[in-house]
Amino acid sequence: MSTYILAIETSCDDTSAAVLRDNKVLSNVINNQIVHAQYGGVVPELASRAHQQNIIPVVDAALRQANIKKEQLSAMAFTRGPGLLGSLLVGVSFAKSFAYALNIPLIEVDHLQAHILSHFIDRNLPFPQFPFLCLCVSGGHTQIVKVNDYFDMQLIGNTIDDAAGEAFDKAAKILNLPYPGGPVVDKLAQEGNADAFSFSQANIAGYDYSFSGLKTSFLYFLRDRLKENPHFIEENKNDLCASIQKVIVNSLMNKLVKAAKDLNIREIAIAGGVSANSQLQQTMKDLAQKHDWNIYIPSLQLSTDNAAMIGIVGYLKYIHQQFSDISATPYTRQKL
Ligand code: KG4
Ligand code: ZN
After folding, report:
1. pLDDT at residue 336 in the model
2. 0.90 exceeded by the pTM?
3. I want to staple 9 with a disulfide (CB 3.0 to 4.6 A). Which of 54, 94, 126, 307 is the partner?
4. b/e for 20-59, b at 16 or more Cβ within 10 A?
């Protein structure tokens, strides 16, 4: 008999709902909250209000697209954390009421585990073999995780300050590009010369990352150039994007290569919003050739925040009978 999971994701600024039949996605509806763009970043209070407005229509659309009735659902999965408290509260409260009304099990999901386990969604592609390494790169996180099993993960490396997505977004802001900056930098970089300008990578021990110094050196570099030529950014936009992207991607990859070598693992995955970056994906492919890696890259929709990734964890927990209590409350900080 098939298992039908309704999943919702409301940890930040995307309201999303998905329906999965076992490990297959039947629908994955994502409402990107456009309200934040004018502020150049996510405004938590506006995010929770927008989730309140969106959650019922988004769930309704996910059920309709999947052609599934509420009564067919086996369980309700939701993001418990980490994320913005007000945003999480909307999802947690909705999930509890929904599960209670339908008398179905409630399943809590960790947002980062979900990014990583999204590789187990059936896309007619091979699944990673345990143990594998996952570079999890988003607006809030930058880490290398050793995945021993579905629910056995070890944090190998982490950022000590900004996340890679933040580095992209802050560089974009300095260049007067719209928020979120990552996809815009990626696009402009395609027409640019990545060797036009050089910025140095942080020198941090082990597998940890640091991106705050890069932002500062980018800012000072531009401040000096703009003194000489007020049109410097406009005239060099593509090259600036390509050059900053190169240093971010190379920093990410250097530590990943080191971890893979040291731990002798050749199953390598990437996940999170920044894994949509075209240069990051190309570098992964080149490294796979060089080091004989098997690589796992999410589709665009599965890389940024979405409820299908919550749904796959919901399914895996459902078959392992890992259910949550109706008294579950959100957590805002990472647990892994
Ligand atoms: O995983 P995600 O959707 O949300 C978080 O959990 O943070 O990641 C969002 C981040 C943003 O910083 C955004 O700029 C970045 O992912 N991002 C990209 C690209 N697409 C999204 N960064 C670089 N290149 C992209 N193509
Ligand atoms: Zn995320």
Report:
1. 64
2. yes
3. 307
4. bbebbbbbbbbbebeebeeeeebbeeebbbbbbebbeebb
pLDDT in tens, 185-197: 999 999 999 999 9
pLDDT above 90 (res 76): yes
Contact 80, 88 (CB under 8 A): yes
CA of 140 to the centre of ligand 1 (A): 9
Task: Express each pLDDT in 2-14 by its tens digit.
Answer: 999 999 999 988 9
Q: Which residues line ligand 1 (CB under 6 A)?
A: 12, 138-140, 165, 168-169, 180-183, 186, 272-274, 276-277, 304-305
127-298 fold: Nucleotidyltransferase; domain 5 (3.30.420)
127-298 and 4-118+302-319 share a CATH fold: yes
Residue ranges of domains in the chain: 4-118+302-319, 127-298
Class of 4-118+302-319 in CATH: alpha beta
Q: What is the mean pLDDT of the chain?
A: 96
CA of 305 to the centre of ligand 1 (A): 9
* Cα 76 to averaged position of ligand 1 atoms, centre (Å): 26
Question: Does 273 have pLDDT greater than 90?
Answer: yes
